[in-house]
Write a structure and sequence with these properties.
The structure holds 2 protein chains of 2 kinds.
Chain A (H helix, E strand, L loop, with lengths): L1 E3 L1 H15 L3 E5 L18 H9 E3 L4 H12 L4 E5 L10 H8 L2 H4 L9 E6 L13 H5 L5 E3 L4 H13 L4 E6 L19 E3 L12 E4 L4 E5 L2 H15 L4 E5 L2 E3 L3 H11 L2 E8 L4 H13 L8 E5 L8 H7 L3 H12 L1
Parallel strand pairs in A: 2-3, 2-4, 4-5, 5-7, 6-7, 10-11, 10-13, 13-14
Antiparallel strand pairs in A: 1-8, 6-12, 9-11
Chain B lengths: L15 H26 L14 H8 L7 E3 L5 H6 L4 H8 L33 H14 L6 E6 L6 H12 L4 E7 L2 E2 L2 E2 H4 L9 H4 L3 E5 L3 H16 L5 E6 L17 H9 L2 H10 L10 H20 L18
Parallel strand pairs in B: 1-2, 2-3, 3-7, 6-7
Antiparallel strand pairs in B: 4-5
Helix pairs in contact in B: 1-2, 1-11, 1-12, 2-9, 4-12, 5-6
The chains are: A alpha/beta, B alpha/beta.
Chain lengths: ~350, ~325
Amino acid sequence: MATMGIAEALREGIREEMRRDPTVFCIGEDIGVKGGWGGAFTVTLGLVDEFGPERILDTPISESGFCGIAIGAAMTGMRPIADVQYGDFLFCMMDQLANQAAKMTYMAGGAVKVPLVMRAPVGSTRRGAQHAQTLEVFFTHIPGLKVVAPSTAYDAKGLLKAAVRDDNPVLMFEHKLLYGSKGNRAEKGAVSPIGEVPDEDYVVPIGKGAIRRKGRDVTIVGKLLTVYRALAAADRLAEDGIEAEVIDPRSLIPLDKEMILESVRKTHRFVVVEEDNRTHGWGAEIAAMVAEEAFWWLDGPPVRVSAPDTPPPFAPNLEELYVPSVERVVDAVRRLVG
Amino acid sequence: MNAANANGLQSSVPGEADLIALYRTMLLIRRFEERCNALFLQGRIPSTLHLYIGQEAVATGVCSALRADDWVVGTHRPHGHALAKGVSPRVIMAELMAKVTGCCRGKGGSMHVGDVRKGVFPAVAIVGAGLPIAAGAALSARMRGTDQVAVAFHGEGAANEGDWHEALNMAAIWKLPVLFVCENNLYGASTHFSKAFAIPRVSDRACAYGMPGETVDGNDVVAVHDAALRAVERARSGAGPTLLECLTYRQCGHSRSDACDYRPDEEEALWKERDPLKVAAARIRALVPPVPFDPSGIEADVAAEIDDAIAFAEESPAPAPEDLERHVYWEGD
């Protein structure tokens, strides 16, 4: 058992999968350049030394093109792990993800598979509007894709391995403040959870959530960074005798609905915390699911704590307002518990 | 050589048997498309149709230069690509009629016809998006240590999409075994080539990416075959990709409701004179020593094959209601 951050855990996960299976390879921008960074956040740092430039394949700045290339490779016997430097760049490859990767199995009547992993860093981190969006919801709306969002080192490695072994396209969203990237790629204000990661092979099954804190009074669901905001809020609420249960779905598609519903049936109150825009958002879907399927257990309306309907701002003081804070979560719960 | 599937023709100087096989494949596509159009007008095929009539020499000439295990990525006009690569008319017709026995279980339809067992991807109906996918199949072939080749068919309209340029560039940098076949039929939907390009030839762009580009008479199946064979040999030998532009003409409208009012009658007449079946027949009749060529036997043979395909499709059931939510994710082999 070693302790490490998420970037390192992902790196070890990729290394082990590439050693295990010769059809696994990495493809992306600046991932294997000697003297470079190992991707934007050091995840692939040093892997080229072991696997060479054929399997840690650096591409030109051509997001749509290399996504399509990864799809074509995945359809013909390979298992690519592709990545973008910033999640916002996924929009450049939207056709390849939404029309090609996601629909190929369906429109072939099940005759082809697309075992593709696409990794994408998200999160508002003082970079302004085009390098900061948290945009999982665009992909959770597309049938045919699986979507995971690990918030701990253990889950990052376990979900990465599960994603590589899955026969469907899996998008993995990673939060910049949680990576624990080191050196000059370290992030200011990072939470960077350091966790224990087993030495032996394991996977975290896609579709299983995790209860991060047990509680009886309110269910708070968060993902990525907002899991930690929810946990900090829960600590503060506990001082007032309010015990929050904090759930980290880890996997957004498929979603461990039963874990959330079971918690709501126990606590009778529900809050979802997201770093996404509010309108038509991920939180809206989770809140609607709770309202539809656990309405009679609820003592109050399902509540969303979200980013406002703006692009991510640059000014640090505005960014503080944009990303849901611990205080906003505490306030939402207090209003609900009354 | 299987007459229904021209795969395997390797000679660049085709003899009588090869030419007749090519002619047969082209005629199969022509008659298949004509019957599709009739079935569509009778309401027996739903949706819309993008017919391949007039372009038969391109798919036939290219696929005759391929091996059975090579890959083809088609477009929104894919019936000809699939037939030329050896996909059975039965499963294509069943797909067009939305039957569960179709090559995509009735869930793809005309624009996604394909059969991976024959090396034909589900066709990609987003213009230009198939090029990176074909390049990816080519990358995969190299990584897996096979000498397979991939082909991306596309219209000239695709050459103005970003994916086209990204795919050509990466294929050239990595010397991928891929052939980009541009079917320049003069119109992107209704927009004339001259309004979309400031250059006379799509193949002129090849040099910008560091690969050979060639323009051939896309209505002459022998010219297409010869150029494709050179490009395939180059790809298989590890020398990299080729851009092959085939000048051809879409004899029908873009899709079902297109009366082609934007095209001059003289232009249509000119290209019908250069009909690929006429050109191929003339090639056969020009053989030395001369051979008698009577296509009536091939006509009858092709008609029987299409009759059988239609009967198979009409007798097949539609997908079951539970098929709606199946195959969103992979269910296993």
